[in-house]
Every structure is written in C-alpha cells, then in structure tokens.
Amino acid sequence: MIVSWDQQYRQAVIDLWNEEAVKDGYKELTEETFERIFTANPYFDSENTFVLLDQNEVKGFACGCTGDDLPLGEVGGYITCIVLAEGFQTNQNYQGMLDALERRFQQLGKKQGEVLFFNPMLLPWYIPGTPKHEHNNAPGVPIESKLYAFLLEAGYVERAKECAMYLKLDGFTIPEDVRAKEHKASAEGYTVELFDSEKHNGVKEMLNGFNNLLWQREIGQCTADGVPVVIAAYKDKVIGFAGPVIRQDNGRGYFAGIGVLPEHEGHGLGSLLFFKLCEAFRSIGTDYMSLYTGSTNPAIRIYEKAGFTTVKQFSVMRREFV
C-alpha cells in the first residue's frame, strides 16, 4: 500500500535510507539532515512524498518536488528519490512509486518528469575512494543504481551523463602555460581576479546574459554580500565568473558554477577562471574540490588539466507525459 507522507514515518524512512540508499553512495541521514533536505525544504510537498507500507512497515520512500521558479519548473516536476527495501525492489513497486509521483506532477499541471541537477532537494553523497569526502548534491540518478535501470525501462530518456570529478588541493599549482594565457589575456584588456565592488561593475548584466536563475540569485547575492567570487573582467566590466569561493565545514570547496559571456569567449578565460578558483580555494585551506560536468562538455579537458578525475557518473533523464 502506498500512502502520502506523514511525520509518523520519519524514523522508519531514515532507517530505510541508511540501509539502502547508502548502497548507491548517498550519505547517511539523521533526523536533522532529513528535516533539512526534505520536510523543512521550501519545495517540500507532503502530497508529492510517498511511503510504501507492507504490514504497516515502511518498505519504500519516494519524493518529488515542483516549483514554477525552478529551471523548467513551469512544465516539469522533479523526481528527488525512490528508495525501496531489499526484497521489495521489484519493477512493480518502483512503478507504483513512480506513478504516485507522476500523478501529483500532472495534478499540478506539469507535462514531464525530470531527473535534473537543478533539483533544490540536495542529496549529498560520498566520493568513492576517499575518507568520506562528500559532494553536496547528486546531479541525477547514479548509473549503477537499480533506479536508473528501472527508469530507462519506464520510458525515461537519458538526456546527458554527468561526470562527477574530484581533486585534492594540497599540491595544486597553476601551470606555466596557464600563467602565459593570463599575460596574453591581460594584454588584450582582460583580468581574472576576485570581485571588488569598488573596482568592478556589470555583475547583474553578466548574470542576465547566462539566463540561469540559480546563478542570478546565488552569485548576485554573494557579490552583494562580499562573499569572494572569482571574476573575469574586460576593462573592469564583469564578463565571466567562477565561484563563489566558500570552504564548507567538511573541507570541500563549494561553488555554484563557471561561465564566460559568449561574446568574450576565445581568450582562454574559462581556463583562467577555473585555475584561479582552485588557487583561491587552496589559499583558504580547502581540502578538496568536487564538481560535475557533462561527459561531452569540452570543459572537461580544463578540469582534467587541473588534475581532476572522474569518480562517478549520474544520468539526467526525462519522460514527457502523454
């Protein structure tokens, strides 16, 4: 029997997560982190969160979310997770949980289901082969998971594979050829440095040029509040960014993204921004960085040149409702 969310199931769902979701690499949940990720999240919807019961015992948990202010949010609902207990991981149970999520999406007028890295319910996971170094968000479904195989069978189309990449920062240095690029860009009127509100201008216009609501909100707020952000500027007008430069409590360097306006591409600014970002993280005592990028994204070469390696892959998926 599948029922909508009720707080009485919280501890049983946490126990289920810590037994099954961790097998796919997800970080364990506590009451505090469960509340932060799920029930206290502004996008949490108790009518879009479901529990599978068998003889009144919790054997499954599924959560989705929606929001018109999210990327693709006007047409799509986000699948956050479907977790089933051992012995209950059948296509029938996966389908039942998925049907419940999709019905709620359609009730809210959505036309497609999305497994997408813009999901505001951030699921942290451990980086394989490390002392529990963690990434703050899973950008899709782990491709080695049973859920991934089921979603493919259920008609979800893989739109991209996201490569999760990792680098320990203790030995990071900027290579000489990248320094040479910096000198060349400088001669062309470009600088790559930390944002200075008294020197630089045009942040809002730059962010609007990327048409990314999350970047507009986060990077705009950071530059307004004085949180360090690496920027590229042409004659002091901001035309690109990487950041923000924030060392998380777990030692990870958190950043929201990197971008250069199309009209200023071709000067090596993307490489410069990223290497300067790594340098800025190391300078504040950051232990490691992790990020994800599309497997076909040319930027993957920049990350590999900096020393990053791919440690896990996730799938971005979609199904359009008939």
Folded structure, characterized:
The chain is built from 9 helices and 17 strands. With 322 residues, the protein is α+β, with helices and mostly antiparallel strands. The strands form 3 sheets. Strands 1, 2, 3, 4, 5, 8, 9, 13, 14, 16 and 17 form an 11-stranded mixed sheet that branches. β2 (49-54) and β3 form a beta hairpin. The model has no long low-confidence stretch (mean pLDDT 96).
Write the layout of secondary structure elements.
Blueprint: E1 2-4, H1 10-20, H2 31-39, E2 49-54, E3 57-65, E4 76-84, H3 91-107, E5 112-115, E6 125-126, E7 134-135, E8 141-142, H4 146-153, E9 157-168, H5 176-187, E10 190-194, H6 203-210, H7 213-225, E11 230-234, E12 237-243, E13 246-247, E14 252-254, E15 257-260, H8 269-283, E16 288-294, H9 300-305, E17 309-320
Parallel strand pairs: 4-5, 14-16
Antiparallel strand pairs: 1-2, 2-3, 3-4, 5-17, 6-7, 8-17, 9-16, 9-17, 10-11, 11-12, 12-15, 13-14
Protein name: GNAT family N-acetyltransferase
InterPro entries: Acyl_CoA_acyltransferase (IPR016181), GNAT_dom (IPR000182)
Domain N-acetyltransferase: 190-322
